[in-house]
Known about the structure:
Elements: E1 2-3, E2 5-8, H1 10-18, H2 25-28, H3 32-37, E3 42-46, H4 48-58, H5 62-72, E4 78-83, H6 95-108, E5 110-116, H7 122-134, E6 138-144, H8 153-166, E7 171-175, H9 183-197, E8 202-205, H10 213-222, E9 227-230, H11 244-250, E10 256-257, H12 262-279, H13 293-296, H14 300-312, H15 319-332, H16 342-356, H17 365-371, H18 384-393, H19 409-415, H20 421-429, H21 434-440, H22 454-464, E11 470-475, E12 478-483
Parallel strand pairs: 1-10, 2-3, 2-9, 3-4, 4-5, 5-6, 6-7, 7-8, 8-9
Antiparallel strand pairs: 11-12
Amino acid sequence: MREIRIIDTTLRDGHQCLWATRMTTAMMLPVAETMDRLGFHQIDLAGAIQFDVCVRYLGEDPWERVRLMRSRVVDTPLRAIVRSKSLVSFDLVPDDVIDLWIDRLHHNGFRVIGAFDGLNDMDNVLFTASRAKALGARTFGALAFSESPVHTDDLYVEKAKTLVASGLVDSVMLKDAGGLLTQERVRTLVPALKGVLGDVPLEIHSHCLTGLAPLVYLEAARLGADELHCSVWPLASGAAQPAVQQLVHNLPSVGCAATLDEADIAEVSAHFLRIAEAEGRPVGAPLDYDAFHFEHQVPGGMLSNLRFQLEQVGLPERFDEVLRECARVRDELGWPIMITPFAQLVGTQAVLNVVHGERYRIVPDEVKKYALGHYGELPAPVQPDVLDRIVANGTRRVTAVPPPREPAVARLRRQYPRASDEHRLLYYMFAGSQVDDMLAAGPMRTRWRPPRHPVVDLVAELAKRPPLAHARIEKGPLTVELRGHEGATDADR
Length: 493
């Protein structure tokens, strides 16, 4: 049987999709060595959002996370994906900042580095690949998949040819962030891509948003795909990737196999299930097929954000209307792929159109920048009447021609003379006191401990009080009794 290589996404996209990227380093480290030995081809650890959440919400130094993981994962290459030329932000950043970012990724332990571009601008993808390749990293270029009148097999074949001709990528990733691939599309697209890739491996990355990804993976493997992106359940299925446990079981049905240690997989699975149960985190579950998803194409992580925005303005009942508006806005803007950052751009404009009643009366800066080509060549032209409204109603701060991006690294080194380059990059990307607050949070925890039950805290507090004759605490099936004795002292108890 033909061997399929598995790229693990549990520690990046799995928890990004199911736990809002809130997996801490302490949750990862206890199973890092097990994941290293179980047979994965690569372990996907970080993209832009992991850096963002570490700094802003977890109070963890993302660079320290990488170093700690690298010290434990010694045989399996750690993998990072770069978001084109914007890195963590919406706006494009100077080339010298991107160069330094890639340098630091490699220096801190990433041995596989690649990029995607939301407009499928292969020049932007190859900028990252060139720098990473010069450092000795293995590289990949991503083709962001979408369904639209302009995202044809021929388009993807031409993009793949560009990547292969450059000689700068070691593999090509078909990145289906919206879970839009179907078996029918795979039957034409995968052979077409394999026909131009030659010896360059083809990776398939999809999501289970429509319930089809497990079947898509099997069909892609049957047709020659070389590497599949999977997560370990309970951080698989739902909005995440297919579960590696089920994939390993099913691959022989299409004449393929993946050699992984099933006992080690079970250990990793049990670890994350224990965390999910202790902390009330969701676990992945199969989703029903939803034909409407192919119309709006909003990624899973964004759906909850749209619901929240509407709840904030008291309009939760208009959720489906916003999704229909997303489909309409995407058409009018020339079919941007619903992938970061353009999915957020389309979704925000759709919410504004619905909430304010008049379409494009309020235009975010990012929408105007997109329409004017600041982010790169558009898949198709913006509809002329919509472009007129965007230009007229958008801020004058956004000009027809984007301002030049001035080099920034030398300035950062002058501004933060005592900081490392890693922290200088964080200061560049995160405003205000966010980086200082992260650094002030203290040493990173390296071992996860289950949260204490509130009753335990209550008992501990009661134990600090003057001697009690009797206390009884009941919560559900749990009963705790404290009994003192006459004349007891703090030392006696």
